[in-house]
Amino acid sequence: MQKPVLVMVGHGMVGHYFLEQLVERQLHLHYQVVVFGEERLPAYDRVHLSEYFAGRSAESLSLVQPDFLANSGITLRTSSRICAVDAERQCVIDEHGEETHYQQLVLATGSYPFVPPMPGHDRPGCLVYRTLDDLDAIAAQAKTARSGVVIGGGLLGLEAANALRQLGLETHVVEFAPRLMAVQLDEGGAAMLRHKIEALGVQVHTSKETREIVDGEQAQHRLCFADGSHLETDLLLFSAGIRPRDNLAESAGLSRGPRGGIEINDRCQTSDATIFAIGECALWDGKIFGLVAPGYQMARCVADHLLDKENLFTGADMSTKLKLLGVDVASIGDAHGRTPGSQSYQWRDGPNEIYKKIVVSADGKLLLGAVLIGDSSDYSTLLQMMLNGMPLPAQPEMLILPQPSGSEPKGLGVAALPDSAQICSCHNVSKADISTAVVAGCSEMGSLKACTKAGTGCGGCVPLLKQVLEYELTQLGVEVKKDVCEHFAFSRQEIYHLIRVHQIRSFSALIARFGQGSGCEVCKPLVGSLLASCWNDYLLEPQHLPLQDTNDRFFANMQKDGTYSVVPRIPAGEITPEGLIAIGQVAQRYQLYTKITGGQRVDLFGARQEQLPAIWRELVDAGFETGHAYGKSLRTVKSCVGSTWCRYGVQDSTGLALALEQRYKGLRSPHKIKMAVSGCTRECAEAQSKDIGVIATDKGWNLYVCGNGGMKPRHADLFASDLDRETLIATIDRLLMFYIRTADRLQRTSTWLDNLEGGIDYLREVILQDSLSIGAELESEMAHVVGSYQCEWQTTLASPERLALFRPFLNDATPDEAVVMVPQRGQIRPAQPEEKTVSTAQVVAEGEWVRIAALTDIPANVGMAARLGQQQIALFHLPDSEPRIYALDNLEPGTGANVLSRGLLGDIAGEPVVFSPLYKKRFRLSDGISPDDNTLRVRAWPVKIEQGDIWVNTLALAHPLAVQLAEAF
User: Fold this and answer.
1) Tell me, what DSSP letter sits at residue 708?
2) Exposure winner among 250, 357, 680, 895, fewest CB in 10 A?
3) Collapsing DSSP states into helix, strand and coil, what is residue 834?
4) What confidence tens digit (pLDDT) does each residue in 284-298 have?
5) What is the C-alpha to C-alpha distance for residues 890 and 886, in angstroms, rounded to an integer?
6) Are 100 and 92 contacting, i.e. CB atoms less than 8 angstroms apart?
7) What is the 3-state secondary structure (H, E, C) of 286-335?
């Protein structure tokens, strides 16, 4: 018997999710499923579309798993546009006139960008931001452009502005409304967002009605505004909202809304019961839902209906949390307070640029909405309180005010959430679903995500998901362990004490006695940092070299193209004219991009790996030391000029800052440390936003601790007042060493204090009152670190053996051809892929063995690059009882950077792997396949060792003959 035909028009995110729901319910066995997609590519992730300009490939954005369509028997026809639907004959008609008959039809045609019909809107160079093809067109236009304008200041408009900014264009946003994101944000939130975006260099123009677009005088286009002003640009993007793609409804005779959209009922059926509509083309109760989660909800409803299972679509919460141009933005429920009688509470942190607002019911018992700008860490708590009608605390404003140190967590814990609480809206996963999965054996995040799909959509629910997982495990009596990884059944704090108590000086000694396997990208850098904190040995000693991530291995910060940035130390920001000239000469000689940092230093970008020693030799000769910008260590001590120059200064802030930076430079810690010293309470050095902040008083120095800026700003706490210089330094010594002892891996001081039992009061007892009787011990440990300091670059330059590690290739001195720079604003920047003219010649598959280098050229347990003809390969040396060499492609997939040889080596359950240096992807050394995603792979090459020499065959292992060769050796 022939199966009924189910046709779906549209293969976007919602459409593909619907196909996954069909397969999950085994409906693909009942229906012959035929899908028409108008785009040339199968469904891809539009939520992360802007990452395409950051180097992410179209393949990695794809939502279609390998063999999904083949294994499920679903037919997908890409580049196929459906022009009409004959509902009476139940068939769809494509652009070539071919008909496909159906028993059930699903319209998932999505939306299209609205382009205001102003004169000049269709000029060349006027584009939209919606598809990958659109992005390719934008990138092509940007090659000859200096500036770009986005018309539209909503969610999509700001995403588009970020894309232009990533392309290096001078970026403007033009918005008709008086504020950005007028639908989601109130005036206060929009004002803070605008301020933060403009601080990033994006110029915002609100209350601007564009009347026409004409030829520009200085640029390609001129936007003429209703107020008589104008703006010129080379590239114009329209992102003024979306409109539902409902054109097929007309030919099918389906009901549409007055402003567009295919009308659907609670079962997502149109006015024709055999036709469904889902996603942004569907109009339910007069509403179009422009987020992906409601579309997924509609897809589940239709799939259940086809299974004769009742599941009604009754609307969707449109709360959203996202990052726009690096700024945290969240909107929940009734953000504008339009509910009659509602009240609102607002909190603004001007210095840290944070705005928070909650809207509560007239009786103050329920949360109705919220706006969060600059810090969205409260989003999950507030969303759950609103969705589940949870009662507010007696003082609702405490939900958004800063939490006093040492106090109980604000809001309600996961224990208070009802079982029906929706944790993941993308995949409709409730707290009860997570509980069931945990009971069934999902005891870690990876298995929980695989089982429930929670956290695999937009990712916004992951923090709450982890909290629920740990709560459910605790309820089952399972100890929630903080093992650092599979190789050590210990927390970071426990490993620190093992190293100290047992006087362990190397990773090999530690893992032999207290661990298993050969390590990974988590435990190796962690132990390397702890060993440095305890003993302060040179990082490139043979026993420590395999522990160093690429930044610490090359004493520089790796950038996305595989080059490095160089940051010489400028203590307290004080530098002589001769020093500035020396830095400028180095930048000019090596053609480096130069930028002043926020920490009063100079950053030099674009240095090749092999150039680093020569650059640093000149800097060292000029009197500079390494700035440790690459390590989890002290970065800078920022200062004002203090009483030396300033008429308001009461102490020598620069002198103290110099002393602090000279004392703590090179100190390795769980995370980076930033300090500042201000010469008076005017606080020009911004000390209260630093891990360690010092502010001068007329009696001495006030010490502030555990503040930070960055992603989640935190105001530092006043720790002690009017300290003399000696007491101040002893106090900082103790506090930093106690932090190194007790913090978790990669934990900033701010988070450490927030999680420290007893909070700031307990910390004062330990540090100031020496309640644990460890003060002298902490000071002694710091004294050892200070006394054993060495500039890592000075030590490296004195060692020919260490300098050999900086060679571009073992067997060739030619620089990496993939590193290409182009001019921009009088300096250089990395070239985009389309700007490169690199040869793509590959090795001829002749099966020839080529000698590469001596085995002794590659240090044990590390990798180095080599050339195999025109092909770059990465060679990895595992010593063991019999030395083994593995060869993989040197290219890190999805990046365009030849850097895989600089990755850390380790194992997963005994299988040797390399961890890529840029994005920490794992690849098996034996075959180059990622154990996490078998579609992510690099080529592997047969290798043999003869008489101490490394030989590689020119046939990659995918070739049958190469497999035989590899097995032979």
Assistant:
1) B
2) 250
3) helix
4) 999 999 888 899 999
5) 12
6) yes
7) CECCCCHHHHHHHHHHHHHHHCCCCCCCCCCCCCEEEEECCEEEEEEECC
274: left (phi over 0), alpha (psi -120 to 50) or beta: alpha
Q: Residue 376 is encoded by which pair of tokens?
A: 């969205």
Residue with tokens 């005891």: 443
Per the CB < 8 A criterion, the answer to whether 456 and 445 are in contact is: no
Q: What is the C-alpha to C-alpha distance for residues 752 and 708, in angstroms, rounded to an integer?
A: 12
Other C-beta atoms lying within 10 Å of the C-beta of residue 647: 6
Task: Kindly provide the residue ranges of all beta strands, DSSP E only, lying in 545-601, ordered along the sequence.
Answer: 557-558, 564-566, 593-596
pLDDT digits (tens, 9 = 90+) for 539-592: 999 999 999 999 999 999 999 999 999 999 999 999 999 999 999 999 999 999
Cα 132 from Cα 140, distance rounded (Å): 12
C-alpha span between 710 and 377 (Å, rounded):
13
Query: Contact at 8 Å (CB) between 653 and 642?
Result: yes
The Cα 482–Cα 496 span in angstroms is: 14
DSSP 227-262: TS-EEEESEEEE-S-EEE--HHHHHHT--B-TTS-E
User: What is the rounded distance in angstroms from the CA atom of residue 965 to the CA atom of residue 420?
Assistant: 58
Q: What are phi and psi of 355, to 5 degrees?
A: -130, 130
Distance CA 742, CA 749 (A): 11
Q: What is the pLDDT of residues 669-709, one digit of tens each?
A: 999 999 999 999 889 999 999 999 999 988 899 999 999 87
DSSP three-state, residue 718: strand
What's the start-to-end Cα distance of the chain, in Å? 55
Which DSSP category does 642 fall into? G
Longest CA–CA span in the chain (Å) reads 94
d(CA 817, CA 836): 10
Q: Is the dihedral of CA 537, 539, 545, 547 positive or negative?
A: positive
Give how far Cα 418 sits from Cα of 1, 369, 386, 413, Å: 47, 20, 12, 11
The tens digit of pLDDT for each residue in 398-415 reads 888 886 544 444 555 677
C-alpha–C-alpha distance, residues 852 and 951, integer Å? 6
CB 334 within 8 A of CB 379: no
Under 8 Å between Cβ of 165 and 324: no
Q: How far apart are CA 28 and CA 3, in angstroms?
A: 10
How many CA atoms, within 13 angstroms, populate the side-chain half-sphere of residue 358? 25
Bridge partners (DSSP) listed for residue 86: 91
Interatomic CA distance for residues 80 and 284, integer angstroms: 28
Angle between helices 492-501 and 507-514 (to 10 degrees): 110
Q: How far apart are CA 749 and CA 652, in angstroms?
A: 26
| The pairing of beta strand 692-697 with beta strand 673-678 | parallel
Closest alpha carbon to 84 in 246, 248, 222, 207? 248
Distance between CA atoms of 744 and 669, rounded to whole angstroms? 10
pLDDT digits (tens, 9 = 90+) for 211-245: 999 999 999 999 999 999 999 999 999 988 889 99
Query: Across the beta sheet with 849-854, what order do the strands follow?
Result: 849-854, 949-953, 943-946
Residue 180 identity:
L
